[in-house]
Write a structure and sequence with these properties.
72 residues, mainly alpha, flat
Length: 72
């Protein structure tokens, strides 16, 4: 599969840049699996929040900001 090859190449680029490769995820989800998709997105957002801010982000890149978790 070409997609898997592209993902592996992208992971290698992330490693070379010193970026945690957990910031990239590939998951095959059918259009009929709405709940699975929602759970996957929720889990991925939580993982990104755990990893913290994008290590390449600068103050000049506000679009790359990860929203901070709101405290209850």
């Amino acid at each position: 599969m070409r997609c898997k090859k592209v993902i592996e190449e992208t992971r290698e680029i992330l490693r070379l840049l010193g970026i945690d490769e957990r910031r990239l995820r590939l998951k095959w989800i059918s259009a009929s699996e709405g709940m699975v998709f929602a759970e996957e997105i929720h889990d991925f957002v939580q993982q990104l929040q755990t990893l913290g801010l994008n290590p390449l982000k600068t103050d000049a890149d506000p679009i790359l900001d990860l929203p901070e978790k709101k405290s209850s």
